[in-house]
């Protein structure tokens, strides 16, 4: 089970207590009636859906009940950071684990291997010789 | 004769039957009992009102996550940064104590919304853990520790009243589910 840190409870809690609430930092227009259809579509429907780090809203619904934001890697599901609602978006370059996800964009034969497939064959050949 | 039967009907219709009253289960190492009715309020208040409310309630409202404060028959549980559950097993309703407080707050009587059950014995933590995913070791969930969490599919408020004792508060409509779940948990914990 995923453990998610709640910035209000200041503790790692099981994911069953939480509910995802979509992408974070989507600013609603102050004058909704004035924006064009295209702008409304972008605000209302279009989400980044990245392979990698995404900023999300989460709610500790079966706990303190608070909404907060988190940066999660969509490939490994690892949370890079969580922060209270209303706080500014953290700079990813300052986070220790801001490098691309461990298994991002690797071909399947290289997954879960310390040495790449190419290197493995090279070692085998050396051993045979 | 007719008069007597009429008064008897009135009496029986006025009889209060709390949900799950008298329900109990015991297995080896676990004792599960539905607790008698209590006064409860759901209290919400900003930080500025806490001092005044604490004075009115007669106990200091806890400000740290996962902590509770207890005095006499009354206990206040921290549920969120501005939310508490206050219950009183005695005769005094905390709702009346909050009524005179001028500071901004919201106190809602939920005495009949919740029912409580106690789970005690060496297998108590294992019984609750049958459906609650939190770490209930004493280091992380000490005596007096409390948290709103889930048990199976139902939301509960969990309070550790002793090393091997828990109080489980749940909504009245979930009470049958929660107590059945705990009964099954106790059966498993006893094995």
Tags for this entry?
heterodimer, A: 129 residues, Folate-binding fold, two-stranded antiparallel ribbon, B: 191 residues, alpha+beta, Gyrase A, domain 2, Alpha-Beta Plaits, 34% strand, globular, disordered N terminus
Structure description:
The complex is a heterodimer of chains A (129) and B (191). With 129 residues, chain A is an alpha+beta fold. Chain A has a single domain (3-98), classed as Folate-binding superfamily (Folate-binding fold), CATH 3.30.2270.10. Chain A has helices spanning 37-44, 117-128; strands at 3-6, 11-14, 19-23, 53-59, 67-73, 79-84. In chain A, the strands form two sheets. In chain A, strands 3-4-5-6 form a four-stranded antiparallel sheet, with no helix packed on it. The termini of chain A are far apart. By secondary structure, chain B is α+β, with helices and mostly antiparallel strands. Chain B has two domains: 22-36 and 113-191, Gyrase A, domain 2, CATH 3.30.1360; 38-111, 2-Layer Sandwich (Alpha-Beta Plaits). In chain B, 25% of the residues lie in helices and 34% in strands. Chain B has helices at residues 2-13, 50-57, 94-99, 124-129, 175-190, and strands at 24-27, 30-34, 39-44, 68-71, 74-80, 83-88, 106-109, 114-120, 146-151, 154-162, 165-171. A six-stranded antiparallel sheet of chain B has the order 1-2-8-11-10-9. A five-stranded antiparallel sheet of chain B has the order 4-5-6-3-7. In chain B, a hairpin with a 2-residue loop joins β9 and β10. The longest helix of chain B is centred in the C-terminal third of the chain and has 16 residues, at 175-190. The radius of gyration of chain B is 18 Å and the shape is globular. Residues 1-9 of chain B have low confidence and may be disordered.
């Amino acid at each position: 089970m995923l453990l998610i840190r709640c910035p209000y409870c200041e503790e790692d809690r099981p994911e069953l207590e939480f509910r995802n609430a979509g992408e974070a930092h989507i600013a609603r227009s102050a004058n909704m009636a004035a924006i064009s259809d295209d702008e409304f579509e972008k605000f209302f429907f279009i989400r980044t859906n990245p392979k990698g780090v995404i900023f999300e809203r989460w709610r500790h619904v079966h706990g303190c009940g608070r909404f907060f934001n988190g940066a999660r890697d969509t490939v490994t599901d690892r949370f890079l950071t969580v922060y209270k609602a209303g706080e500014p978006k953290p700079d990813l370059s300052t986070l220790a684990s801001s490098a691309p996800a461990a298994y991002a964009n690797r071909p399947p034969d290289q997954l879960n291997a310390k040495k790449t497939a190419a290197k493995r064959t090279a070692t085998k050949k050396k051993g045979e010789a | 004769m007719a008069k007597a039967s009429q008064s008897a009907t009135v009496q029986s219709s006025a009889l209060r039957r709390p949900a799950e009253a008298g329900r109990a289960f015991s297995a080896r190492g676990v004792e599960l009992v539905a607790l008698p009715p209590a006064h409860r309020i759901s209290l919400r208040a900003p930080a500025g009102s806490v001092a005044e409310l604490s004075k009115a309630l007669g106990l200091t409202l806890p400000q740290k996550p996962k902590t509770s404060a207890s005095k006499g028959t009354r206990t206040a549980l921290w549920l969120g940064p501005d939310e508490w559950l206050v219950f009183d097993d005695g005769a005094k309703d905390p709702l009346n104590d909050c009524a005179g407080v001028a500071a901004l707050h919201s106190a809602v009587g939920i005495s009949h919304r919740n029912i409580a059950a106690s789970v005690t014995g060496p297998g108590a933590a294992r019984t609750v853990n049958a459906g609650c995913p939190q770490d209930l070791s004493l280091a992380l969930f000490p005596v007096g520790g409390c948290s709103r969490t889930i048990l199976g599919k139902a939301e509960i408020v969990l309070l550790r009243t002793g090393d091997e004792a828990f109080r489980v508060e749940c909504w009245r409509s979930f009470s049958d589910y929660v107590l059945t779940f705990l009964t099954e948990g106790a059966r498993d914990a006893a094995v």
